[in-house]
Every structure is written in C-alpha cells, then in structure tokens.
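hi!! sorry for the late reply, been swamped w classes. u asked for the two structures so here they r. pasted raw, havent cleaned anything up. first the sequence of the first protein and right below it the tokens
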Amino acid sequence: MDGPSEEVLDAFGLSEPAMLLPGGQGETWRSGAVVLKRAVSESVWRAEVLAELPESEAFRVPRPVRSLRGEWVEFGWEAGELLAGATDVRRQDEVLTVAGAFHEAVAGLARPDFLDGRNDPWSDGDRVAWCEQSYDGSPAYVELTAPLVDAWRPVELVAQVVHGDLPGNVMFADGLPPAIIDWPVYWRPPSWASAVAVADALCWYGAEPELAARWAHLPEWGQMLIRALIYRMTTEDVVRGSEFWEGPARTSYEPVIELALSYAG
C-alpha cells in the first residue's frame, strides 16, 4: 500500500520522508517523531479521546497530532506521536494488567455512534459472538464452533468502550509504563477484551493454559472466552474461508475451545 503523499506530510507540517514501520499490517508510516496511518471511521473520535485522556502512571497512549489546520484527519490520514518501546507477545500478564488500567480510565465514555455503521469482518465476528448477527460459515467453522454455540448463554455485564486487539498492541520500554497503541474500539465488557487477549495468546503466541487460570477471576470468564473464540473464528472464516481450517489453525484452536468450555460450566 502506498504511503502518505507529500500533500499529507505538508498538511501535518512534516518535512522528513515517510518510512514504513514494521508491524501495523504494512500500513503504518513514520515521519520524524510522528506516526501516520490511514484514517478509519473511529479516527476522529479516538483522537479526541486520547487527546484529553489524563496522564497515567500505569500506561501510555500515543497522543494524536493535529494538522496545521487544526484537524485530526487530512486527505484520509491521521497522525500520532511516536512512542518508545516494542511489542512482546510473551508478556501477556502485563498486557492484561495494563489493559485493566486503561479500561478503567475510559469507562465513563459514552457509546460512540460510529459503531452502528462499521461494516468489516471484525465487526461481523463481534456481533456474531454476541448473537446480534447470524452467520452461515464454512462446514469446518460450523463444526468447530458448535460446542461453543451450545454453551453460549446470556450474561449481565456492563459494556463500555474497550480495546479489542491487545496482545500485539502493547509496547514495553525500560523505565516507562506500557504503551497501548492501535486501538480498535468495541462496546463490550472489559472482561471480554481480556478474554480475547487470552484466547489470542493461547491460539497464536504459545501461551500456556495457566494464563487463562490466572485471569479466571474476571466476570463471566467462561462466557467471555466463548465469545472471544467465536469472534476470532468468525472473522477468520469471513476473511479466509474453509481453507483456513485445513492448516495449523484447526489444531491451534481445538485445545483452546476445550479449555474455554471447561470454564463455562
């Protein structure tokens, strides 16, 4: 994907050439001390929140950068400060701890309107996981998710804005609080966001089952794990189809499904 044009750089008052950053799905660029990426539906809302979020000793966030005209988005791009640190998917307990502090800090925010119009595989997966949307998936997907669907039951938890993709989006730097970046906004209970992080770590990053046990005190843990798995699996099926389940993904998900069911009671 093409990087920000000179027009974009000029709009934000940036003089250094844009350099592609590692990670960020190949869509994140750096010019000097500023990070640029293409704007999405929540960009303005997120910028306004992060600009006003009080400083915390528990976490850092990238403060958004206004353009020279005072706007958060210019020519389809948004900008934020470059933070020190690097992600480390092995440090999942620390990821979950900092997520708790971040979610507490944003707990009072109202539900953003852009969520109603967001239409992408991740939003589809989220809605399916909460029985707000139906999905006729591939045969392998239906087979794998069937026990999760059977164990699904309603819960009574308070929803709020949460970060829905934590494991690879928390950066660590010596002497500094962890930094939370690339915030995909969802309106769900915080324990769901933690369950997604745990499920991701178990399926993709080599975490041990004890990780789930250490966080089992979170509200409705079994049901949140069930929803986390349905969310991820639906998204994968929407994006990649039946071929996805013919590879190592199936053997990655099967033991985690079994583990989640053991918490569902």
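now the second protein. again sequence first, tokens right under
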Amino acid sequence: MMPVRGRLDLRCAYGAPWRIDQGPGEANEIPYHAVVGGSALLEDPAGGRPLRLETGDILLLPGNPRHVMHDGSTARPKPARNRRELNLVISENAGRGERLDLLCGHFAITPPHDRLLRSYLPPRLVVHAGARTVQRDTGAQLAGLVALMRSESADDHLGGRAMLNALSTAMFALVLRLASETEDAPRGILALAGHARLAPAVAALFNEPARGWSLPELARLCNMSRATLARQFQEKLGWSPSDLLTDIRMSRAANELRRSSISTGAVAEMVGYQSEAAFQRAFKSHMGITPAQWRKAAQEPAILADLGLAKAAETQNPDGAKRNPG
C-alpha cells in the first residue's frame, strides 16, 4: 500500500577521532545507519544525553533530521575521504583506535505516503539485530541480512548495487517487525501492530477499507467493549480507528488514481464513499489537493514535492464516508 525502496549510500570505515554530520535528506526519505563494527554516539538535538549505538544496532530516523554522530572524544576529527568502488562509495579516514564500520543509506517512500507513514513512526527508532530475546527469530533474520549486506559491500561483485538496494528494502520491513515485537514498542503503528488483541480490528480495516466499519463491530471482532477498543487505539496509536481507516482509504485512493483507466467515481466507491463529491471533499481535506490534481501530479513525479501533500491534522470522519467507527 505504501511503496518503499531502500538504498545503501555509503560504507564508513573510521578510526578515532571521527564525526558524521548528515541531513536532512530529501523530503520523502528516511535515513538509516547500521553499526556493523565498533560503536558511535548519536547527539540529541534537544541537548540531552547522547545515545550510544553498539555493534548490531540499526538506527532509523523517520523524522529525517540533521543528525550528528561521533566517537565520543573532543579531539578534532580526522578528515574523511570518499573512494568510489563498483557498487558503493567507501568513506575512510586516517584515525586510529577502535574503528567504526557503518552502513549508511535511506528508504524512499512514494509521496504522499511518505508523510503519512512518518506520522505513524517515532522520530527515532533503534533496534538490535541478533538480540537474545523472545524476538530471536526476527532478530536473527535481521542480523543475517545485515551480515549479507556487509559481505556484499566488501566484495564488490557484479550486480552488487542491485543486491544491496534490495537487501536495504527488506531491512526496512524487518526493522519494523522487530520493533513491533518488543515489549516497549514505541507509540504508533508499531505498538498497534504488536498488540495481539487488537489484531483482528487492524486486519479488518486494512483488508476491507470500503466497508462501513462501526466501533461496535470492530470491538466484537476483538472480544472487547467499544470503550476498551477506543481506549486501546488511543493509547497504542494515538488516534482512533476512524482516523486509521481514513488514512488507509486515502492511501488506497492515491494508488488507484495513478491508473488513468479508472474513473474518480470508481475510486470513490472502491474506498468506501457513496458519492464522488463526498470523496472529492475528503481527499482534498486529507491530502491538500483534489483527486484530479493528484492524478496529474502522479504522471509528473518531479512536481509532487511542490504540492505540500500532507495529512490534514483536523481530518476527523470526513463527510460522506459510508460509516466510520464512533
């Protein structure tokens, strides 16, 4: 529903003292860093205590901020030099001591899904690949994938670029899966996905977004009261089932509008609106542009960034939907 493409941009091999100052990237990008050797300190932009990243840690920055990482010393960092190989850029310095081995890349999300997905994720997300916890299966999968990326980036074989980017894309899914399986999953879609009792309602909303789901119907699927379901969604996600349903409908609609062979009215019916006019109003309120403008922009990707596509914060139960929960 939300197309994501991963790309490994460079591999850093630094000895102390070193410093990385990056970002922000393109508007639709989520940067990532995978520590495959050594350790690093990530500065807190608010001035708090730096976050220490160890070997095996994978950092995602859905907020796409400017971010600074360093070795923890106050010495002037050794200048880094980039060396381009067949499949990758290697960044190195002449530092000594413990060496950092870091894979740096980003995930590109197709607009307008980028801002929607970012609103469901924490500004900063860290998981540990291969952690000895109850999530060992996913952690082991992720550790194996990162090990393959490390090997592929070192060997520089033909086809390596395609391999590294495909593995980066798979890493995005595994990182989110691992984060959702932890007991302290951050508030948002990850906490919701990891809540077993809410799974039937979440699956129903994603599988049948055109249906006029009511809160009592969703509550019955989860064997809980309407009030409990509403409270759990608010605690885990921060929004109501109605909000999630609207986001799913608009994401599906945005994808369908890319197809010139299907009418706007047919798209409206497909995502649960009884009239094209009601759908037009809801789409404009949610996305900031009309379905016709979005359809035109989808044929010219270069202008998408100029349209200010974003979820309207005030969107609640758009007029004309068949029946939203609550």
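hope this helps!! also noticed smth abt the second:
Residues 195-306 form a domain with the Arc Repressor Mutant, subunit A fold (CATH 1.10.10.60).
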